Amino acid sequence: MLDPRFILENVELVQENCDIRGVKADVARYAQLETERRTLQQEVEELSRQANQVSKSIGKAKDDAEREARKEEGRMLREQKDAKQAEIDRIVAEAGAIYSHIPNLTHPESPRGGEEDSREIRRGAVEVRPLRFPIQDHVELGEQHKLIDLEGGARIAGHGFYFLQNEAVLLELALQQFAVEYLMKEGFVPMITPDLARGDIVQGVGFVPRGPETQIYSIENFDLNLVATAEITLGGLYAGQVLEEEQLPIKLVGISHCYRTEAGAAGRASRGLYRVHQFTKIEMFAFTAPEQSEDMHNYFLDLECGLFDELGLPYKVIDIATGDLGGPAYRKFDLEAWMPGRGNGGEYGEVTSTSNCTDYQARRLDVRYKKKGEKGTHFVHTLNGTAIAVSRAMIAILENCQQPDGSIIVPEVLRKWVGKDRIGATDTDEE
Description:
Helix content is about 40%, strand content about 20%. It is of the alpha+beta class.
């Protein structure tokens, strides 16, 4: 959320920001309601003061008639106060509904417009490799080498769930080890996070925990939800806490399962492992001082690029346009890897994203820091970034590294964990 004072002092700017992000929020109405609330609050406090004075004076009444008159005066004052308080409660509810939908401010360099206006800003070190043979997508390769059992997953839990088998299991574990090892060398603290979080934490990070718009699985009869990303648990780690400036920046790398309803997702581009209800993700998260967050955001992007360069996979980086930003993001970069089996003749597909959320999440979660020698506190900035979303990284590996005979070359950086150079190779091929 934005600072309410900032909204009231910059109504036109905040409304313009909502408009370029495609968010329907009546900022002027919010400002009007807040002005009314403040006026009414002063009136409530004055009526309460008067009622207290009258109450104290009852014992000093000269006779029963005066005593009863003062009691009646006090009763009327309390009724007026209660009526105004009820009006305040109504205003707070209406203003709160508007306030909760106001998105973060937007980086001045973010492209303006919808999804089609997002801008490519970088290419990976590895170019797209032309495959001069019949290309198989990851589903076909998974069936050929008994790596992915989509039908078994559907029988157990429904469409969008799956079993990984054989070398796919080793690939999943290798990708986790690779990403965590890479980031620990950069000073990240590794964490295995809970798979569940309370509704206030989910909402504080910026996800909708329940209701028709949610992509979150909720646990019936409990205020608990399966997390869609470790951003939720890592972001909530210091909720309600005050950090010391010397602790910042705090860099965490979380390992978690992710659960998403993916309502409405369908089509060939979403088939197989691309859009599933459960997957493993290695997530970067940082708490920083405000002046550190932009550099940290660019650093997160460099780390994501470094990981995929090490894997030898071609990709492009997209600066996401304003109309496609989520509410908490001030700026967001997506990394899209080339997937030869996607679409007709290959397409890029999103594999990571990184967002600078400035103090938007910190205000909702009440995460602050204090400077040495100062009495007050300040909100931290929060940033998140996907290191590896295993299911999508696996798609890119299987499809880009396939060979004319259908075998799959294992990226060199993963071989020490997978234990082989090639999937589907004969003993002679390995030699």
